[in-house]
Design a protein that fits this description.
CATH topology of the largest domain: Aminopeptidase
CATH architecture of the largest domain: 3-Layer(aba) Sandwich
Strand order of the largest sheet: 1-2-3-4-5-6-8-7
Radius of gyration: 26 Å
CATH class of the largest domain: Alpha Beta
Distance between the termini: 70 Å
Shape: elongated
Largest sheet: 8 strands, mixed
CATH superfamily of the largest domain: Gcn5-related N-acetyltransferase (GNAT)
Helix content: 10-25%
Length: about 375
């Protein structure tokens, strides 16, 4: 296919990709990684041509000026394909201007069209394009123009979806997708990171305060955090582990924990007055979710980046998402049960009988 008589677009099964194009693509990838100038250069460090289902190249005088792959992996359901994967244009033909065109043409259009034609030969259950963006205004303009040009039915999702498995990497894995309107999305959508819980039958706030006040707190320390990080040594954010404390010394904690087998990874946290806990996800290889119970009154809300503030007294939290707690005139006391072996979504399903649409103070 010829676009404006200057770029020739061809799509190959990976095993059929001519050696001269494969070598040129590898040279481009090596340069991307070496220069570290492209916004997404790190994405190419683990990009291997032999793992792709197919590769599309854009050629000028038989020189590769653009490439993109069609990709499938174990995370996707069978017969689900990501198209326009690792799309790259060399600098001399980059799109420019508010309409994002080169010489008046959208060079990406024929690449998309060829890849859709190729995927359709595979009898796909679903195919999609995904990008790390929430602002979809230009996306919608772009694909509306594509649809009008090719009589297609691609639509831009209003929500973001998990297109890879790393729950610690929301930016990289939870993305806006473009897909055929008549297809059913097979991915899990991004969901609110806080779910209010009603565990009043297990919680005695006054007794929990007694359990907490009988403990000796120490500054929170994360040995794997950079020495300049707040979390390397946080004297204004103290904690105490409870897995090795005799149950008869923490009866109120044990009542909640034993009912749910949460004692092993339970802690009290004490955030000093007029101090904050900066934006973070819980530590590397840390919990996937937590159940938090606020013991103090007049607490600052937890703020989840991209979502906003949540004031709660008992809640399930998705601690793989970036969150922080701003300062408050009073100390903030929390009982936290960290969950390592189940995701936030799994815990939400497990605790569905205790989900509360509203949060009331626990007496």
């Amino acid at each position: 296919m010829i676009l404006e008589n200057f770029i020739n677009v061809k799509t190959f099964k990976t095993k059929d990709l001519p050696k001269k194009y494969r070598l040129q693509i590898q040279d481009i990838i090596n340069q991307i990684i070496s220069d570290k100038k492209d916004e997404y250069w790190e994405n190419y460090e683990n990009f291997y041509l032999f793992e792709q289902v197919a590769v599309t190249v854009g050629l000028i005088d038989d020189n590769v000026k653009a490439f993109a792959s069609i990709f499938n992996n174990d995370f996707y359901e069978q017969d689900v394909y990501r198209i326009l994967n690792r799309l790259f244009f060399t600098e001399d033909i980059r799109e420019s201007g508010s309409t994002k065109t080169y010489k008046g043409s959208h060079r990406t259009f024929p690449i998309i069209q060829q890849q859709i034609e190729f995927v359709n030969t595979l009898n796909p259950k679903f195919y999609f394009i995904s990008r790390q963006r929430k602002n979809t205004r230009y996306f919608k303009y772009f694909f509306n123009k594509y649809n009008n040009t090719y009589n297609a039915n691609l639509t831009v999702s209003d929500k973001q979806y998990w297109v890879c498995s790393n729950k610690k990497d929301k930016y990289g894995c939870c993305q806006t997708i473009v897909y055929p309107k008549d297809k059913q999305i097979p991915f899990m959508e991004d969901i609110r990171p806080v779910t209010f819980l009603n565990l009043n039958h297990l919680i005695d706030i006054d007794a929990l305060r007694i359990d907490m006040n009988n403990q000796t707190f120490e500054p929170f320390k994360a040995c794997n955090a950079p020495k300049t990080s707040f979390f390397y040594n946080a004297p204004t954010w103290e904690t105490v582990r409870m897995e090795n404390i005799p149950l008869d010394e923490i009866p109120a904690v044990a009542k909640v924990a034993s009912a749910n087998k949460w004692l092993k990874n339970s802690r009290f946290y004490k955030q000093h007055a007029n101090t904050s806990v900066p934006a973070h996800t819980d530590i590397s290889d840390g919990p996937l979710a937590s159940v938090n119970i606020l013991i103090s009154d007049n607490n600052s809300p937890v703020h989840f980046v991209g979502w906003g503030d949540y004031t709660y007294y008992c809640a399930l939290l998705d601690v793989t998402q970036v969150h922080k707690v701003d300062s408050c005139p009073e100390e903030r006391h929390v009982l936290k049960f960290s969950i390592f072996d189940k995701t936030y979504e799994q815990m939400k399903e497990e605790l569905k009988d205790y989900i509360s649409p509203q949060q009331e103070f626990i007496q």
